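Predict the 3D structure for this chain.
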Amino acid sequence: PGAGQVESLTVNGPELVVDNRAPVVIAPPVHGPGWLNAFSCCDASSIHRGVRAAADGARIVKSETFAIDWILLQDNRLFEDDGARNEHWFAYGAEVTAVAPGTVVSARDGLADGTPKSLPSTLQEPGEGAGNHVIVQIEPGVWAFYAHLQTGSVAVEIGDQVVTGQSIGRLGNSGNSIGPHLHFGLIDGPNPLTANSVPMVIDHYSLTGSVDPASLFASLSDPEALTLRMEDTAQSQSGTLPLNMTITDFS
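Done. Predicted structure below.
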């Protein structure tokens, strides 16, 4: 080739392994109308998408890529009054149910719920970041992870066999949390500190609107700041994953 022309189309670089598994179909872990899917897939600004952790001193894992923080909305707000108490938040104490049948491999209770809108101050070790939690193996290589449950609410024990829709606890504010919500996701190992996130879809729900991401944190100090965009007609969904900052209703 002449001067300035490309001599090769070959690029030498690191090998990229792409996991081509199909997403796992699950039932929703929460129920009723008005659930905000905070930090869900696949917005680049989502907190979960950017999480990286060193595992076993040999690899980097992405444990939260497809995870969702479920927060309940009522009358365009996250909480009543000033939200200074967990009981002010509409999500607090909501029932959390199994998304699929499986075997409980981890269940922790007894960690105190934190104070809303404040950083946690009592965590002693990395494992306490999940707070009160339940982990259920739902198929080979796939575990369902339910975190930040209300203290005293965990209703299952290690070794229990659960069925879809069975109550496993109540939504709380324990662990690394600044407000009542359910952190939920699927992972490819029983330890969320060393596992990768597994793609998932929900069997059925209705998409009813979305929230302006910038307004979510603003609403912690000014409850009226939450900016919603509601659909004229609810959109029925089957076998999809609700995207970041959308609002969903579950029957």
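Residues 213-221 form the longest helix (9 residues).
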